[in-house]
Amino acid sequence: MLQRIKICGITNLDDALSAASFGADALGFVFYKKSPRYVDPSVANEILKHIPPFITPVALFVDASAEEIDAVIAGSSRWTIQFHGNESEQECLKFNRPYIKALRVRDPKSLSNQLVSYPSASALLLDAYKEGVPGGTGETFDWNIVPKDMTIPIILAGGLTPVNVIEAIKIPNIYAVDVSGGVELSKGIKDKTKLKEFILGVKRG
């Protein structure tokens, strides 16, 4: 199966268009102010006006208020929401948009407990656990504990690069891969060479 590709941490139009031209399926925008990849909602919604069709923009939040989320998604009907905090399934459903729930992976048991908690999710994103850090750790986890029998699509994240993504896409039942820091020049600015290598590497399998 050809895995889909999400490029996260988009902060500017040039990177968005480059990712789209190389073949990204989704672009992630971080609306968590503590993140070095935070982007202002007005900037993100302006970028969306120039993104070609068939590319999904994903709005990433960490325990944000309903007002904060509404202020972003009101700018475009194209937004899918990614919840990266401690949001319950009920909180994720409030906005009547497709949503992705990010889960921080510690061990097989804790992962199993989390996986059954969001049956309404469009996909579940698995990221490495790091104390006090809600995501974007740049670290991998043991990919061997990814369930092989999930009915909800699984997105693999955490520490992916143009080098190790070739092994990552061999993991059974991976619907998509998600990268941010692994294709950057600096936090929030993409390296076009790494970006292209990552996307083409996944597509070539």
From TrEMBL:
Q: Which reaction does it catalyse?
A: N-(5-phospho-beta-D-ribosyl)anthranilate = 1-(2-carboxyphenylamino)-1-deoxy-D-ribulose 5-phosphate
The enzyme's E.C. designation: 5.3.1.24
| Pathway(s) where this gene product acts | Amino-acid biosynthesis; L-tryptophan biosynthesis; L-tryptophan from chorismate: step 3/5
| Top EC class for this record | isomerase
Where's the N-(5'phosphoribosyl) anthranilate isomerase (PRAI) domain? 5-199
Instruction: Please name the Pfam families in this protein's record.
Output: PRAI (PF00697)
A GO MF label: phosphoribosylanthranilate isomerase activity
Q: Which UniProt keywords apply?
A: Amino-acid biosynthesis, Aromatic amino acid biosynthesis, Isomerase, Tryptophan biosynthesis
Q: Which InterPro entries match?
A: Aldolase_TIM, PRAI_dom, RibuloseP-bd_barrel, TrpF_fam
For whether the record's keyword set contains Isomerase, the answer is: yes
Protein family membership: Belongs to the TrpF family.
Query: Which PANTHER family does the record cross-reference, listed alphabetically?
Result: N-(5'-PHOSPHORIBOSYL)ANTHRANILATE ISOMERASE
Q: What is this protein called?
A: N-(5'-phosphoribosyl)anthranilate isomerase
Source organism per entry reads: Marinomonas phaeophyticola
Lineage of the organism: Bacteria, Pseudomonadati, Pseudomonadota, Gammaproteobacteria, Oceanospirillales
